[in-house]
Predict the 3D structure of the following.
Amino acid sequence: QVQLVESGGGLVQAGGSLRLSCAASGLTFSSHAMGWFRQAPGKEREFVAAINWSNGVTFYGDSVKGRFTISRDNAKNTLYLQMNSLKPADTDVYYCAARRLRMQISSRRFEYDYWGQGTQVTVSS
């Protein structure tokens, strides 16, 4: 049974930083493309960042480029999202997601098969 558990969310002032973690179990983590998405109440889930399984290639949503960094530690089965220069517009619930085994990197939420429960990030002005 695949489990993805996010942590690291919280309240931060604008301009501050947070690092989210996603602990994965029940899958061969090193062989799965991983992604971060976010969602505000009443809005669609938005792509934030993704990282490939085979070559570590990364891809970012336009609104976070240059501020967020996605990374992975395959030895620890953990995905990270380093968020710098946070803005109030970054306030959302952040979700970790995994694609099926050996599928390539994607920004499309419907191409992800496994999801975590989410962690709240709130940025105050």
About this structure: Residues 52 and 118 are 21 Å apart (CA to CA). The mean pLDDT is 97. DSSP finds no helices and eleven strands in the chain. The radius of gyration is 13 Å.
